[in-house]
Amino acid sequence: MSAIIQSSDEKQVRQVPGTTQDVSTSPSADQDIAIAIVGEHRHEIDPAVEARVVRKIDWFLVPAMFIGYGLVYYDKAILGSAVLFGMTTDLSLSITNTNVTPHTTDTSRLSWATSVFYFGMLAGLYPMTFALQRFNMGRIIGIVVCLWALICMCTAAVTNWRGLYAQRFFLGFVESIIPTGFMCIITSFYTQSEQSLRQSWWFSSTGAFTIIGGALNYGFGQIEGGDLKRWQYIYLLAGSFTFIFGICCFFVPDSPVSAWFLTMDERVVATERLRYGQTGIRCTKFKWYQIKESLLDVKVWLVAIMMASAYTVNGAVSGFGPLIVSTFGYSTLDSILFQFPLGAICLIFILLTGYLSSHIPNIRIILLIICCLPVIAGCAMIWKSSWYHHAATPVVGYTIIGFFGPVVSLIITIGMANVAGQTKKCFMAATIFVAYCVGNIVGPQLIMSQTKSRHYPELWLGLIICYCITIVAAVVLYVVLARENRKRDTMDTKWIRPTVYQGVYNAIRAPLNPELIACLHHYTTTYPSTPSTPLPVAFSPRATIATHQLARRRTHTHTHISIRQFQFQFQFQFQYARTNLQKKIPVLE
Predict the structure, then answer these.
(1) Do 557 and 511 contact (CB within 8 A), yes or no?
(2) CA nearest 543: which of 582, 491, 505?
(3) Where are the stretches annotated Disordered (predicted)?
(4) Is the pLDDT of residue 147 over 60?
(5) Averaged over 166-193, what is the pLDDT?
(6) Coil, strand, or helix at residue 96?
(7) Which helix (H) or strand (E) holds 88?
């Protein structure tokens, strides 16, 4: 049996009176590639084939994105371990002021070495976003990742802090393609209900690679002697792993349409299933009206505020985490080992919140607020506790700061799940990433080495304020989304449903209407009167009863149309109308 039932007369079907044509599938608009595969009209999908398609996509894409984003995080985070292995001294990243007693150490160069990476990401973000939109996604990612690997390995050749600044800037420039590209891949292959869980899978690699990277760095810490410093070995290994991953990226498809690991029928199903969620398939043309919509959308800016505020923690932890733990009275190697529990918190709770948000509706923002609270508590514990030799309280506080991982994961999911259209999705992804860079730039600058004796009060107070801002923005976003949902439900009940119903009824009681004849011919040849799989009905019980009555009446007259066919026609037009809430559809009398 074919995975999807199609009609040879599909292109001849004209618009049914009482509805408007969906702009996202209009031939006069910039047509998505998917239209050439599945046509302009919706089709019924075989659930068994759809399940098989989703499994195939999961097995191919999720491991690749897990490894890729893990390498991005590892390349950034190894700076924190490298400074413990002599990089600070070798590259003059710290300056000791001997003119005062006691002597003070200025680590502002290390702070800027951490921040300049994200300036590079900002510089590369829009060129990379344009490249992702315009060119073959797999090829462009593969080329850039291989270049990223070479730049990473070149860190071992750096001899001073100026060279490190240049290396970090260009490393950030090329790495900017990964998070934006992955967010676009997720929204191009999965429906809205599936995106949360899949996004949490690849984003959880931040926790997993904190543990894996910590173990590797701990092993390099055991090296004695050799022609290279221990921190140089770390960067050479990271670059080698990244280059292998870059070769694999050449096999990543642009969208379900070009997914080589799917059969042709499976590609059709993979494309058609996204139409139900109205998330769109990859289009290589920018749609400027979607850019305007994004700029005027308050949800975009609330998500940006949350992202910038929440990611200040990462900027401090990735560059200074092991160094901060060492000030609690622990050795260099012990400080690296204490990254393990923080990574475990990230890994476990990113996966847990992703699972819960994909199975419980309207819980993402609530989970986000809950996960912000341990981060605030952890910052307060580190700030106000005693930092004596082998202190336990600040280590516990440092560990529970790992809850920033699920916070950021939920912010990304919320942002990407509330936009439709490829250009708008890429704009949202780029906006999220700009906010991500801003947070990571600000975080390291909150660390004032001169206030070490007072437990870095600027850092911990700043992080507490940022997470309070995140909570407030999340509450405002919840109110905005709730209001939009109520407005949509009201329009469904009072305007869209009766309008579409009246339009379909008027069309059916005019059997000689050529538009109706073409439409009914399409539906009667595409969907038999006794289907093996029932179609879900997308309207109220009262409307269902009325539909049955009209269908029975119509069946005994000139045009033969079954109850199920009438229901499908109603649902088809209802979905078209919902996607055009801004346009008034007149009721035909």
Answers:
(1) yes
(2) 505
(3) 1-28
(4) yes
(5) 84
(6) strand
(7) helix 87-90
Residues 415, 369: contact at Cβ < 8 Å? Answer: no
Q: What integer pLDDT is reported at residue 404 of this predicted model? A: 92
Dihedral (Cα; 68, 69, 70, 71), 10-degree rounding: 60
Query: What's the CA gap between 562 and 569, in Å, rounded?
Result: 11
The two structure tokens encoding residue 36 = 């050439």
The residues near 308 (Cβ < 8 Å, ≥ 6 apart) are: 435, 436, 438, 439, 442
C-alpha 500/C-alpha 445 separation (Å) is 57
At 482, list the tokens: 């709730």
- φ/ψ of 187, rounded to 5, equals -75, -15
Outline where 135-160 has alpha helix (H). 137-153
Domains (ranges, CATH) in the chain?
47-280+290-455 (1.20.1250.20), 484-589 (no CATH)
Among 404, 361, 358, CA closest to 379: 404
Tokens for 447, please give them.
């660390």
Q: How many CA atoms lie within 13 A of 202 on its CB side?
A: 28
Question: Which has more confidence, 179 or 534?
Answer: 179
Is the C-alpha dihedral spanning 257, 260, 262, 263 positive or negative?
positive
- pTM assigned to the model: 0.71
**What span, in angstroms and rounded, lies between the C-alpha atoms of 241 and 71?**
8
Q: Which residue has the tokens 């894996």?
A: 212
* Number of Cβ within a 10 Å radius of residue 99: 7
Cα separation, 414 vs 430, whole angstroms? 14
For the residues 541-546, what does the mean pLDDT come to?
Answer: 39
